Amino acid sequence: MNIAIAGSGALGCGFGYMLQKNGQNVTLLDYWEDHIEAIRNNGLTVSVNGVKGTLPMTIARPEEVSGEMDVIFVFTKAMGLEKMMTQINHLIGTKTKIVCLLNGLGHLKTLEAFVDRRNIIMGTTVWTAGIIAPGETQLNGNGPVELQNSHPEEEEAARVIVNILKDSGLFGEYSKNVKYTTWRKACINGTMNALCALLDASIDQLFASPSIDSLLNGIVDEFAAVAKAQDDIEIDRDEMIHYLKEVASRLGSHYPSMHQDLFNRRPTEIDYLNGAVVEAAEKYGIEAPHCRRMTDLIHAKEAVLEIKTGR
Amino acid sequence: MNIAIAGSGALGCGFGYMLQKNGQNVTLLDYWEDHIEAIRNNGLTVSVNGVKGTLPMTIARPEEVSGEMDVIFVFTKAMGLEKMMTQINHLIGTKTKIVCLLNGLGHLKTLEAFVDRRNIIMGTTVWTAGIIAPGETQLNGNGPVELQNSHPEEEEAARVIVNILKDSGLFGEYSKNVKYTTWRKACINGTMNALCALLDASIDQLFASPSIDSLLNGIVDEFAAVAKAQDDIEIDRDEMIHYLKEVASRLGSHYPSMHQDLFNRRPTEIDYLNGAVVEAAEKYGIEAPHCRRMTDLIHAKEAVLEIKTGR
């Protein structure tokens, strides 16, 4: 299959590498010049759970590529999705499937402005990845990648991509409720991630705080209320808190990605997490003061750190 | 008059120095050994708006002093008031007036457990002060010190102390509504102070943030609702926001005291500001999620910084 990776950062390179290695015809798309040059000169080097390999790969700016793709994986930051969709528009045909594994909420709506819902496959993944240098990344974990068709008649198409991911060692799984896993992941990012970023704390430091339950409850309650109103998704507060604590105990002294964003002076995805909950809450007449305060505080922290958010 | 300063830190020393210099008989009370030793050996040195002077002063641990005082100024941190009242109990007679200029809410109730309301003079001040070294402090500003009797029949007593403060260059003023100024000051501390501490920001950095209005509104609304329910005090949100911005523009690149507390790894007074609002809100059936989140976040930050709060 002709597969494009729209946004070839850490996770995009990891996926592109595994797909290409296992027989797919992959084109990496990106705008980072040093990265493009390094891959063109030396191939793409990826360490998968510590095992390093190098492959020659095609990498280009979207406008340098032509022809309709079979599948495009979008791997931008949440705030970069809309712009990327305009940049890859010429690669999307009537049968091109767009696979979206982005963090955060509201991406289906963004994608529907560009492609028919029939061609949108939404998903989540718990693979993690990092950039080591231009042309060199790492991919860690053992999946899964959960996918589901956004249109009821497109299950077969989703399952084809699930199988490609399975065959490529990326642990694809067909999900009957990807909306739930998306909300659950957003809930993790909107609590653990946002709080660690704001407090400059590691996960275990955050969870050792005497106010942790109160800090989690307020946010989780609001995510649950909006998930119910908007997507008819049931989030049980106690179950979610239990899950959060279990995830936290596994991650220990790790700093989550939003903390790394602030540390590296990059804008965060807060508008697609707590901020998206605030926006949806308004629509449904729900109060979301905890998510509003978290969103405002993270934006204030971005401003204090003089991070350009483009807002 | 025999005046004791119960808690001779920066502000206590500044007040004690000015009172002693202008004819009062002042006893400084404290437990900080280096400070006591320095003042006993070399006197107390205070820079008042940059003008340095040294006076021999009496300083002692409370238990080393006996006899009833005419006036006792309490100058502890908010969380130290109750303990200090037990430590100075033997210096309080039936006519001893207690003057309380502490930051925060709820101190009248604490004091009433030890002395009759007739003898409690509540107040606020905008003098600022700092410790330079043991035995050496600075006092800055030009007041005022607003005082009001807590019992309607004790105005005369309050006015006597106001005049002493005036005569000592401390700019005493009789207030007809010290509850309002106390709430207003708590509102400043519960917004500007708490937010700068949490975000590790100077006042001008905080107020330059694009989310500043939303950050202030949520907290001010809750302070206003509780001030009304508990003390029948009217706080107008727009007026208060305007006042906050005006104060902020004067203070500029300054870091407020709660920021300094965290920076110096000391517990904050958040429980007597936003935390007191949360507690009172519960009593009156008012929602206070913004104050609750701020309180929880500041406590989480204290925990991350491994500050012992004694809670």
Automatic annotation (TrEMBL), chains A, B:
Keywords noted in UniProt: NADP, Oxidoreductase, Pantothenate biosynthesis
Top-level taxon: Bacteria
Alphabetical list of PANTHER family matching this protein: 2-DEHYDROPANTOATE 2-REDUCTASE, 2-DEHYDROPANTOATE 2-REDUCTASE-RELATED
InterPro entries on file: 6-PGluconate_DH-like_C_sf, 6PGD_dom2, ApbA, Ketopantoate_reductase, KPA_reductase, KPR_N, NAD(P)-bd_dom_sf
Protein name per the record: 2-dehydropantoate 2-reductase
Enzyme class: oxidoreductase
Gene3D superfamilies xref list: N-(1-d-carboxylethyl)-l-norvaline Dehydrogenase, domain 2 (1.10.1040.10), NAD(P)-binding Rossmann-like Domain (3.40.50.720)
Organism: Alkalibacterium pelagium
Catalytic activity: (R)-pantoate + NADP(+) = 2-dehydropantoate + NADPH + H(+)
CC per GO annotation: cytoplasm
